[in-house]
Amino acid sequence: xxxxxxxxxxxxxxxxxxxxxxxxxxxxxxxxxxxxxxxxxxxxxxxxxxxxxxxxxxxxxxxxxxxxxxxxxxxxxxxxxxxxxxxxxxxxxxxxxxxxxxxxxxxxxxxxxxxxxxxx
Length: 120
Description:
Elements: H1 3-17, H2 22-30, E1 32-39, E2 45-46, H3 49-62, E3 63-75, E4 78-89, E5 94-105, E6 111-118
Parallel strand pairs: 1-6
Antiparallel strand pairs: 1-2, 3-4, 4-5, 5-6
């Protein structure tokens, strides 16, 4: 398996842990390059390290428990991942979502771009 596929799989595994594991949250943030851009499904755009850290801290504070499944489709330098997630919000409400992520990577194999889309 190529390193970029491994990074995406690791990202999803860490995402299942990061709500209750600060080390996993920090590892997610460290997967991104210093000039990365994250476009959240909620319309939030994080375009520097501090904003990306804040984006993920808020996401995992609001989502207390998560379980992801994903299928990665590499296409040249862009990777598209179909995913499903079941989870529990901070208020106890259960949810399930289906969506797609688009990834691009820097030459150092850090995530340089992530766009999250939720299927309607």
